Prior knowledge:
Blueprint: H1 2-10, H2 20-58, E1 65-68, E2 73-79, E3 83-89, E4 92-97, E5 101-104
Antiparallel strand pairs: 1-2, 1-5, 2-3, 3-4
Amino acid sequence: MTTMMLQSLAQAPVPVMPSVGEQLVQMIPMFIMIIAIFYFVIYRPQKQQRQKQEDMLAQLKKGDKVVTSGGLWGTVTNVGKVTVTLQVAENAKIKIVRDHIVRLRGDDDD
């Protein structure tokens, strides 16, 4: 019985390894899928958010109520190329870098 099994194992065909070209052809669709997932899940949403932020900063005007990245709430009193002057209290004005404005405040945000 064991000799019969050994003979059948000895006569079993050797599996053929795919060539490098065949392996590459099998991997290309996976790479394309991974790149597409990264584009639609990570890169594209960040690009849209960055564009929305840049548009908001470009449309800043005197009188806008804003929130800074440091958490300060203020009203825009002067808009420069790089800086913005905010009035944060009755007689308190501060100058900040324009990029540190995170969002516009709504009327019901008080």
